Amino acid sequence: MEVTPNASSKKKMSDNTKSSIFLSPALILLLIFFLTPMLLTIVFSFTNLALTGSQAQNIKFVGFDNFIQMFNDAQLYNSIGKTLLFVLFSAILGQCLLGFLIAFLMKGKNAAFRRAIGITVIAAWVTPEIVVGFSWVAFLGDNGTLNSIITALSGIEPIAFLFEYPMVSVVLANIWRGTAFSMMAFQAALDDIPLEVEEAAVMDGASRWRIVRNITIPIVKGTITTNLMLVTLQTLGVFTLIYAMTGGGPGNATMTLPVYMYQQAFVSYQLGYGTAISLVILIIGALFSLLYMRFLKVKV
């Protein structure tokens, strides 16, 4: 029995309608919890919205006043610099490289070894940021675990790591917590590389470094790009860890954009200015994503 074009077209339309019906709850949730807050953020960034005072009751459209204030705000530029520094050492040079190294060293090892290392690394990743923050404060504090070990072994006075090396402290804590995601992403990608390809390169006399540079990295380039974007965007938004460890201090030493945005919005009660700062974070994240795709030449 032949199916006429009209019958086929009607069946296709019926299938599309059914698909739309099943997808509609997810689309509605996406609209409510993702697109709506994003649009409200953009709208509020052009207002004088505040938590207290007359501005809390009389919201006014102020045009680009918040953005003009940002361009004249020296602390904003300091926070952008701190944020880029935190992302560079924590996400790019820390989590991504360390995650790739762990995954590469685990490749081909027995299941028990891979499981033990995997559980150890993932345990940090599933720990809430607030717990990680307080744990590292206990570890790096004046009377913390690290200072107790140093004093016992060398007899020198305790070092105030959180005061003298605050950025290093929060970077190490974030690397410790976030490396597991990169490790799992690279482990899955490396396991998909056919053994025959690497064995053929070894038979041709290629060194381990040449295999990694000319075979491994080109094959997992897509994973590298995706992982870099995800880890960078996640690191751009890190707030709880830094706030729990240093509160953005001492002084402004760890005042990244999320911490500065929080202080302006919920400490100084200037929600309009705080939402304008959040758009800067969004723009930086978009620029990083475009840079990664352009640098690694990944088609989208």
TrEMBL record:
Statement: the UniProt record of this protein carries the keyword rRNA processing: no
Mode of membrane association: Multi-pass membrane protein
Which residues span the membrane? Answer: 21-46, 84-105, 117-139, 159-176, 228-246, 266-292
> Taking every annotated instance into account, which residue ranges of this chain make up the domain ABC transmembrane type-1?
81-292
Q: Where in the cell?
A: Cell membrane
Which InterPro entries does UniProt cross-reference here?
MetI-like, MetI-like_sf
Protein family: Belongs to the binding-protein-dependent transport system permease family.
This chain belongs to the protein called Amino acid ABC transporter permease
Per UniProt, the keywords (alphabetical) are:
Cell membrane, Membrane, Transmembrane, Transmembrane helix, Transport
* A Pfam family that the UniProt record links to this protein: BPD_transp_1
